[in-house]
């Protein structure tokens, strides 16, 4: 009986050690995320977006840059879908607004493509191209905000702002990753 009790105690200790080791990548990943995000202008949004993606654990700096770019690209795609829904909103049925929404849809589709190109650039460490394409994506979305003028839906204005911030986060993290010894 003592032998079985000893085995159970040893097994419990082994499992506790393995469980502790399993949480280590998440803890280390969170530390890196906090460190990287503290260098951005939008720390809270940065932490929220990076921690929402399981690929952030355990990612290195380049991996976190990739997650940030993918998150911004996904955000652009989501906003494109929201704009398509806005076409059916009767409060936005003025021809000028509809035309501006159509232009915004084009701008977001272009921004999404620019971010996809940025992701490809990151994989080959073409940081100059990455920066250029992310900046073009932000310019596209700023153009969308300008085209709608005072007629722009508040939801779209907020989403444009968040998109710009996500791009700024991705740029900052990419610049940090660029300095990483590879």
Automatic annotation (TrEMBL):
CDD domains in the record: PMEI-like_1
GO molecular function per UniProt: enzyme inhibitor activity
Record key words, sorted: Disulfide bond, Signal
Gene3D superfamilies xrefs: Invertase/pectin methylesterase inhibitor family protein (1.20.140.40)
Segments forming domain Pectinesterase inhibitor: 28-173
Protein family per UniProt: Belongs to the PMEI family.
Protein name in the entry: Pectinesterase inhibitor-like
Organism: Cucurbita maxima
Phylogenetic lineage: Eukaryota, Viridiplantae, Streptophyta, Embryophyta, Tracheophyta
């Amino acid at each position: 009986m003592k032998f079985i009790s000893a085995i159970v105690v040893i097994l419990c200790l082994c499992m506790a050690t393995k469980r502790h080791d399993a949480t280590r990548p998440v803890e280390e990943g969170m530390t890196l995320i906090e460190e990287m995000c503290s260098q951005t202008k939008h720390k809270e949004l940065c932490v929220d977006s990076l921690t929402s993606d399981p690929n952030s654990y355990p990612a290195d700096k380049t991996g976190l840059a990739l997650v940030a770019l993918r998150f911004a690209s996904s955000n652009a795609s989501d906003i494109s879908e929201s704009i398509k829904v806005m076409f059916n909103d009767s409060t936005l049925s003025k021809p000028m607004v509809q035309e501006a929404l159509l232009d915004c849809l084009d701008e977001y589709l272009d921004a999404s493509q620019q971010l996809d190109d940025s992701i490809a650039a990151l994989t080959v460490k073409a940081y100059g191209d990455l920066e250029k394409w992310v900046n073009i994506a932000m310019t596209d979305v700023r153009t969308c905000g300008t085209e709608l003028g005072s007629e722009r839906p508040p939801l779209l204005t907020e989403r444009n702002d968040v998109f710009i911030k996500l791009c700024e986060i991705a740029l900052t993290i990419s610049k940090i990753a660029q300095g990483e010894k590879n």
